[in-house]
Amino acid sequence: MIRSERSSNGYREYHSEAVEIVKVIRMLLHCGFGTRQILEVPLCAGGRIEGSPEACAASIRMHNAKLKELDSLIEVLEQRRKNLLDRIELHTSRRGQDVPRLEVNEIAHRNSLMHQRLKR
Description:
Distance between the termini: 28 Å
Number of strands: 4
Largest sheet: 2 strands, antiparallel
């Protein structure tokens, strides 16, 4: 992705757009792309798209596929969370035990935080 050359003193020298490319790579990592996937994504650097309009369309398709993948994971996590809450309720109601109020508030708080993070 980023190529460098060796100067006469042995230091690596990078092209001026290397900083922008690194920023894009970091953003793609934060979006959930793996390093192998990033190699396949046409990078935007300095406001330009490397490659043809077809490459840009391929990049958009990859972004949409990643979004669909994340939506599926969120759905799975939400179902697992619901299952876990159902189990907690089942166990506490069978034993005739109430979940302490503080614990219920902590669960509600964690719920709220999780939903805020997932909506970002």
